[in-house]
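Re: export button greyed out
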Amino acid sequence: MDKIVLEHVDFVYGTGTPFEHKALSDVSVRIAADRITGVIGHTGSGKSTMMALLNGLEKPTAGKVLLDGYDVNATAKELYADWLKRPEYQNMRKSTAKKAIRAEVEKRRRNLCFRVGLVMQYPEYQLFEETVFKDISYGPKNMGLSEEEIRIRVPEALRFCGLDESLLEKSPFDLSGGQKRRVAIAGVIAMRPEVLVLDEPAAGLDPLGREQIFEKIRQYQRSTHSTVIIVSHSMEDMAEYCDDMVVLAHSGIVAQGSCEEVFSQVSMLDGVGLDIPQITQLMRILRARGIDVPENVYTVEQAAEALKRHFQSLKGTDT
Amino acid sequence: MKSIAFGQYYPANSPIHRMDPRAKVILTVLYIVCTFLCRNVLCFAAILLSAVLLCLVSRIPLRMILRSIRPLIMILAFTSLINVFMTKGEHLLTPTWQIPLWGSRVWRIKIYEEGLWNALFMILRIIILLIGTSVLLSYTTTPIALTDALERLFSPLKKIKVPVHDIAMMTTIALRFIPTLMDETQRIMNAQKARGADFSSGGLIRRAKALLPVLVPLLVSAFNRAYELAAAMECRCYHGGEGRTRLKILRLRFSDVFAVMLLVAFGVGIFFLNRQGIGYTMK
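Workaround output, generated via the alternate export path:
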């Protein structure tokens, strides 16, 4: 099932000014539900712009963004013809039906940012409240949830991000960098979005912090079955944590599919200046030297497994 | 936010763009003086022509120039109305217009020919001022070049202990960080919008409250930036203007001096044109 579909999307910054810049051109992407999709590409390849399109922060210059098949930027006028035929509007008077459609479209537009939760790059800069609890409850409050509901959701979101509940009454400005980032991510998770989009969630963190963040994101996805999109330029992280991948370069899509499919196109990745994971490269070199290991190895764990099998088979021939 | 170019600088390659910024500052001041010297039709025709010529030479698209006039439309309308209705003169155009108020009171509208001329001249004056300053300075000079020029022009004030260099440095830094902070504002606004913030609905108080989640992080990051910049400047041994050399040394060329002399001549010409008793002369 496709959760999000982008159809021939163009995006131009600063139309009609001397600073006009085409950030996306003819981008068509399908993002599957209940999976982790990695969006990978160099700086300036249009990754962040694409993410801003998903939750309605930006509108495409041309093309469509579909969430569960619904064009998120459709205006009521464009929908009248189609929707008036629907059973729920058919029995109404035409003017009442149109009014109902307008209200529905407005509601969907408003709810879009709650359905598609976007964690921007360096999200720790968005923290503003006196306490961690208040900051995380900002999103749920904007959704109009009740106090009780918020009291359930905030600690839950904090747990998902691997933080202790003792932090709830602390000021977010007293936390460490990694903790701040997780609080900011919790602020989005507390809205329980169907799609969670994270733009470079591990940028600027130490290796341990990176691993923890990605691990928590994976646990979150597996337990909630939501759709997760991670933007990154690190092939290693993507190979390790993503199910699917989309490769962006020069404002367009160069490849998409499962990790195996994308990584098998080595020559293409070389062409856009992206590397396959180092461990995959190592395995390829080993193969070239005549050592019998599989080619489609993308993580260190898989490599260890493959090498173990290889040595066992060697032992087998010895005896 | 990328669509809003800060400081209106419009990159192009024109003689005005290439001119020494100091000359441009002096030219702008002279041009403003010329605009205020104008009193009669001939003068306004001459200065309007010069403004059109400036626009053509600067290679700034007409669209950009009109855009800078647009926010002033209300002020233009207001001043011209005041001038039309409030100027008293000799040639009455509307002898019989009367608007009844309460009781037996009436309001007699008196519009004089002089009022119409005054209104026209005021509109022209404001528009030409705007075109002159924007074409000569803001559209064709980067903010940094501008502060550099001002620092050099005001450097004689150092003799009376005015910290010219420090003021110029502070202005430069402030100007340099406006686009950065605008980007930052946009980023934080987007981040809060992604959490359902609503900046455009509700009354004044609600909207002001909605801005709090933007202002707090913005202030925090502005202070952090200031500390970082101060540290970076200290690391490079910045110690004020004393004995500092420059990367870009401003050199006055003959064309710069010539342009200033030309404008002075123009001003003298305007001064004499004013004395010709042609048509209505503004007081």
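Residues 277-319 of chain A form one domain. The button fix ships in the next patch.
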